[in-house]
Design brief:
globular; 9 strands; SH3 type barrels; 3 helices; two-stranded antiparallel ribbon; alpha+beta; five-stranded antiparallel beta sheet
């Protein structure tokens, strides 16, 4: 798990360098514009419907998971693929896990409560105001 998070951390650091002045990731693929990400790496968000929240540690400009995963979502609530998808260090009342969530299903979490995922401190530092910032990538 830690090796995977290290690779993600390096990927996120590279993405962070491409942020626009507003802090939102902007990606151009050929001549097709891909929607801007509404949320930033380090933002605390909550799911619009389900009772979980988390810290964003990576962003895909469009859906980038398996077809099997996407088709497992009931068709009447299945999100579109042509929007940003976020990787979260997530938590609910019972457990912590990694979540993959479409932009349309996320809201800002303004509770001010820290996220208690066990890998938070490996990926992020938290400032005195509770904001999460990426730690420097681990190198050998």
């Amino acid at each position: 798990m830690r090796d995977w998070l290290t690779r993600i951390g390096k990927s996120v650091m590279a993405q962070k360098e491409t942020q626009t002045y507003t802090g939102h990731l902007s990606v151009q693929a050929s001549s097709l514009a891909i929607p801007l990400a509404k949320f930033n790496i380090g933002d605390v968000v909550k799911h619009r419907v389900f009772p979980f929240r988390g810290v964003i540690f990576d962003v895909d400009p469009v859906f980038s998971n398996t077809e099997e995963w996407w088709e497992s979502i009931p068709e009447d609530v299945r999100p579109s693929k042509d929007q940003p998808y976020y990787h979260l260090l997530a938590e609910n009342e019972d457990t912590t896990y990694i979540a993959y969530v479409s932009q349309q299903n996320l809201l800002n979490d303004n509770s001010g409560l820290p996220v208690k995922h066990p890998d938070i401190d490996f990926v992020f530092a938290q400032d005195t105001e509770g904001r999460y910032t990426l730690r420097q990538a681990h190198t050998h």
